[in-house]
Amino acid sequence: MLWAAAEAAVTFGAVVLLLVVHQLWWSNRQAGQGAERQVQALERRWEREAPGTDPAPAPEETDQEPAVGPGPADGTRPGSGPALPRRDQAYAVLRIPSLGVVAPVAEGVAKRGVLDKGYVGHYPRTAQPGRPGNFAVAGHRNTHGEPFRRIDRLRPGDTVEIETRDAVHVYAVDKVLTKTLPGDTGVIGSVPRSAVRPAAGYGAAGHYLTMTTCTPEFSSKYRLVVWGRLASTRPR
């Protein structure tokens, strides 16, 4: 009986160890490689596109059919206006030079369709890159590519680049909120201001960037927020 219990305990421990290895190493490796391929796919497509065209977003490098969000089939706004990215569709590249981060940006913050693939997710109904308002994004801090692993190291003046088909928008890091609650939606408002810590944030309209991730590491109890302001925009 004791021998059987010992064997069961060893087996259980081995299974747990394998799960930890898969979560911390293999998921990172898979997601990181997939995100890198998606960045390359976007860049190749942008190079092929003729100036002045307005094609559909670049396809994901996946075996699944691209996900299509609600709205017109061509992805345009009702009535008129520029094309919008579809749900889960990668359409931009985020770079943080000081951290060596390069990651695709996709529409939406679904775990399976976006974040767990190593992508940075754009919060729906927040501004698009370079536009007035708040371009708000989320990313994993640990596992699944962990693009936002080290954003706690960012300091005022560090830059974050958002590259789209037509332009590169450079944001300068301005403020950091080290801890807030997951439900603090004020941090991604058009004028970002924490509803939990009202002294943190802004009081006037502008061109903002918000990056959110979990904190502390290996926990989802709180959120870390990094804010920036648009510093420049240049054609790609």
From TrEMBL:
SUPFAM superfamilies on file: Sortase
Assigned keywords, A-Z: Hydrolase
Positions of region (Disordered): 46-85
MF-aspect GO terms: hydrolase activity
N-terminal signal peptide: none
Top-rank taxon: Bacteria
InterPro entries the record matches: Sortase, Sortase_Class_E, Sortase_dom-sf, Sortase_E
Active site per database record: 140, 214
Protein name: Sortase
Native source species: Streptomyces pristinaespiralis
Lineage: Bacteria, Bacillati, Actinomycetota, Actinomycetes, Kitasatosporales
